[in-house]
Write a structure and sequence with these properties.
Blueprint: E1 9-10, E2 13-14, H1 15-19, E3 26-30, H2 31-43, E4 47-48, E5 50-51, H3 58-67, E6 70-73, H4 76-85, E7 91-94, H5 101-110, E8 114-117, H6 120-132, E9 138-144, E10 166-167, H7 171-181, E11 184-189, H8 200-215, E12 220-222, H9 240-253, E13 259-262, H10 266-269, E14 273-284, E15 289-293, H11 302-306, E16 312-313, E17 319-321, E18 323-325, E19 341-343, E20 348-351, E21 373-377, E22 380-385
Parallel strand pairs: 3-21, 4-13, 5-6, 6-7, 7-8, 8-9, 9-10, 9-11, 11-12, 12-13, 15-18
Antiparallel strand pairs: 1-2, 3-14, 14-15, 14-20, 16-20, 17-19, 21-22
The structure holds ligand LLP.
Length: 398
Amino acid sequence: MIETNKNIYINNISIKSIFSKFSLPIYIYDYKKILKNLYLIKKTKIFCFYSIKSNNNKFLLKLVSKIIKNFDVVSIEEINNIIYINKKKKYIIFSGSGKTISEILISINLNIFSINVESVQELFKIFFFCNKYKKNINLMIRLNPNIDSLSHDKITTGKINNKFGINISNIKHFLLLINIMNFNFIGYDFHIGSQISKLSPIKKLFKIIKIINKYKKVNFVDIGGGKSINYYENKICINFNNYYLSIIKMIKKYNFNFKLIIELGRFFFGNTCIILSKVNYLKFNKILKIAILNVGMNDIIRPSLYNSYHKIESNNIGYKIKNIFGPICESSDKYNNINSFKINNNNLVIIYSCGSYCKVMSSNYNSKKKIFDIIIYKNKIKIIFKKEKFNNLINNYV
Ligand code: LLP
């Protein structure tokens, strides 16, 4: 019997009624929270491209395409997703340091908004295919400004030791090449990292933009994504509106007249989704008290990959335990909760902030099948991803 004394509601649906209908673990999205985020972004009037890599669920992409309409992609499969949800004019930015020839060809043929080029070799490939097919394409150059985003080392992308972008010291030569090749050069692109919670790296970035803007003025400056979300209850990061208001003020201060582009990912869905799971086992020895959940690094890899914190909550009845693990056969399949809390066998457990970089990074490790995604949608439950089917030969033997 699953126990919970907590009656948590998502858009008037109690989580109790969810576990009685679906197998656990399960991703549960909150439609209201999603709409709130979409309209918050739209209200800023900043030219925003949704970074599909953070969550590519088709139902959610359709929602985005109704309100934001522009997408930042890093693969041919992501372009395919956009074509699937939106047959009209495609506003796509193609980012990424390892574009394939077919990805370059498709981008040229679709006449996307921009390819953000990251190396000299990539530039030559684009030039070759544009010439071959007598087409031109909008280009932005992604620059590596050697700025620390002051977030997590593994999600920092704008430092000199990162693989991303063209070293800022090579910019003059690069601009010369672009000029000779006669591309539609439209802007500079920077994405210095993810989960940025301080404005100081962005201030440094604007000082650099001031210098390079003298070499060549551009129509667009793309500062990428990176706006942080709250994973912790007591470490609240900078508010969305204040963050972008400060950036708009910087643009005014420097008298820039380019149009700002942002490529947000995590902010869209990060805090709109929980995983509902349950405790499968408790285990005590002399040193450790352990709880083993039925959700692990195959469904949510962020804790083991980056030591990321996701708030975990249960009904607070039972044994005081700090060490919470998943069921996967790896010692690193562990959650990083800060305090111990009371937990017991079969308790329901909620893992918060699972809407971005969770399902998209999930795997079939240990041959586990991907789990259901549901959305609580106008007081109803809608399945937006069906649990993968398991070719069940075992039943013949039970
Ligand atoms: N633009 C570019 C070029 C990017 O590489 C990314 C994310 C974004 C935009 C969106 O950034 P966001 O607004 O989501 O921070 N798996 C990691 C995050 C990796 C971010 C990769 N690039 C995590 O779970 O924290």
